[in-house]
UniProtKB/TrEMBL annotation:
Keywords: Flavoprotein, Oxidoreductase. PROSITE patterns: CNMP_BINDING_3. This is Thioredoxin reductase (NADPH). Residues 1-102 form the Cyclic nucleotide-binding domain. One of its GO terms (molecular function) is oxidoreductase activity. It comes from the Bacteria. It comes from Bryocella elongata. SMART domains: cNMP. Signal peptide: none annotated.
């Protein structure tokens, strides 16, 4: 991507000119904290080095163009290397100066962010610079690892050992047992055997730098729609913001195949894409995201709030925001151990799950929008979809446009006022028995994949005894600070809660994002009051 002359001239004011010799390496695959390079004269090329040493040129960077993609905004490691193909004059813009540029130059920031998002999308499609995952498509850990790569926007190539003889031979050569699968090859990291998400996040540069203590203005726990919206508004208004996420960005919304009633997206947007856009937006304003870091405790420590992490590190913040959301409740199914080994229960409906059950009969359990979207999405991949709903009608819990589409979709069968009573074995098959509550009429469905999207269990176990919770475990808000009622304040001063985790909130993506944006004004007011009290005491 090249810039207009006037914009290019302004861009040059943020960097320093350097001359590089032919073959000079500007940065290597696996490096982090990269600077941005603009080609003033000459030519650069982006390339990856395969495991066998083969060098593959991905694309050239011509005069007037610049390097970089998502790794410019965070601690992600570079997926590609960069070298000069001839003697070249380049402009180097440091991380610090780039951050100033992103805050000060709206049009330049838009061009850089747009180009970086597009480049990462292309890398995702082509798999350049990514990991190689070797495992079984029906293995839950393989699905977990692949889901982590997809949701964290890291390209990967999957090799199924059950379909690829060379991969099976390699697994045998590496002395990998079934417990070691999936085996993951990362550039510069060697072989990882059935790694945890944290063991993947660290070499990818997603977990952030390991430090025993961080200080910030605002610590946000949870990077779903509410947490990310809060991060965007807080960082854009000058608050030093640190976001903690124990899994991957997007929260429950990130598992949605498509959200069609979100304001501003007339054709809809996937939960993963919405989360990816929000993540880079927050980082553009300077927010720091720490992926696979779970909060274990929150408490007052003097004038600050300590958020203790699972690894013993501490975030010291002036204020904290809990946006940990909710998760689908586990489906209580009666089945034998033999059936349990054959049936996969899913709590998300993304392209990965769709590949997993392509051409098969699947069951979706739930009556909300998430279940409806999942059923429609899966109907394009599965041979048939059975949607099982406990209520007698969908009108109270699902948007009308989804009801109309489901009713007219020949590949979807609705079972309202029904539930799965048990799973039975029948030879090599597993049969789900669906019972209609009104007359106890039974119907049977041969399936190996059940998608459950029922209920909402708040992610608040770690807060019991610290914050006031309602009977269902959601955080109670609406406390008074200095005579002023705060909609999102919890029972612990300086700690706020927004989104699905908050008692009484509307469980919708748009409302969660709205709460995340709205709470920042209350946090500003709290910080101003705390500062005034501190000055008075001094």
């Amino acid at each position: 991507m090249t810039l207009a002359h006037e914009a290019f001239k302004r861009l040059c004011s943020y960097g320093k000119e350097e001359t590089v010799a032919p073959g000079s390496i500007l940065f290597r695959q696996g490096d982090a904290g990269l600077d941005l390079f603009v080609v003033l004269k000459g030519r650069l090329e982006m390339f990856e080095t395969k495991r066998d040493g083969f060098v593959h040129v991905v694309h050239a960077v011509a005069e007037g163009a610049f390097t970089g993609e998502l790794d410019l905004f965070n601690s992600r490691r570079s997926l590609l290397s960069c070298r000069a193909t001839r003697r070249s004059d380049v402009l180097r813009i440091s991380r610090e100066r780039l951050q100033v540029l992103l805050q000060s130059e709206g049009d330049l920031a838009e061009a850089i962010v747009f180009a970086c998002l597009g480049r990462r999308e292309e890398l995702m499609r082509a798999g350049h610079g990514g990991a190689v995952v070797i495992g079984s498509a029906r293995c839950s850990d393989t699905l977990r690892v692949r889901d982590f790569f997809v949701r964290s926007r890291n390209p990967h190539r999957f090799v199924d050992v059950s379909l690829n003889e060379d991969a099976a031979a390699l697994v045998h050569l590496l002395e990998c047992s079934n417990a070691d699968l999936p085996a993951v090859f990362l550039a510069g990291q060697g072989l990882l055997r059935n790694p945890s998400n944290r063991e993947l996040a660290e070499p990818l540069g997603l977990a952030g730098k390991t430090v025993p203590r961080r200080e910030c203005d605002l610590a946000i726990i949870g990077a779903g729609p509410a947490g990310l919206a809060a991060a965007v508004y807080a960082a854009s208004e000058g608050l030093h913001t640190v976001v903690l996420e124990r899994h991957a960005t997007g929260g429950q919304a990130g598992t949605s195949s498509r959200i069609e009633n979100y304001l501003g997206f007339p054709t809809g947007i996937s939960g993963q894409q919405l989360a990816a856009n929000a993540e880079i937006q927050a980082q553009r304003f300077g927010a720091e995201l720490l992926i696979t870091h779970a909060a274990g405790r929150i408490c007052h420590c003097g004038e600050r709030i300590d958020v203790e992490l699972g690894d013993g590190a501490v975030i010291q913040a002036k204020a904290a925001l809990v946006a940990t959301g909710a998760r689908y409740r586990r489906l209580d199914l009666e089945m034998s151990s033999d059936c349990a080994e054959k049936v996969a229960v899913h709590y998300a409906a993304t392209p990965l799950e769709a590949l997993h059950c392509a051409g098969e009969v699947v069951i979706v359990v739930g009556g909300g929008n998430s279940a409806g979207q999942a059923a429609l999405f899966l109907s394009r991949h599965a041979s048939h979809v059975h949607l099982v709903v406990r209520r007698d009608t969908l009108s109270e819990t699902m948007s009308n446009y989804l009801i109309q589409r489901l009713s007219s979709n020949p590949n979807v069968t609705l079972h309202c006022g029904a539930a799965i009573s048990r799973i039975e074995a029948s030879g090599e098959n597993t049969i789900a028995v669906i019972v209609r509550a009104s007359d106890r009429r039974q119907s049977q469905c041969v399936t190996r994949n059940i998608f459950t999207m029922i209920g909402a269990a708040p992610n608040t176990e770690w807060l019991e005894g610290t914050l006031a919770l309602d009977a269902a475990g959601f955080i109670v808000t609406g406390n008074t600070s200095d005579g002023i009622r705060s909609t999102y304040a919890t029972s612990l001063p300086g700690v706020f809660a927004v989104g699905d985790v908050r008692s009484g909130s509307v469980k919708r993506v748009a409302s969660a994002a709205g709460e995340g944006a709205a709470v920042i004004s209350e946090i500003h007011r709290y910080l101003a009051e705390a500062c005034a009290v501190s000055m008075t005491a001094a």
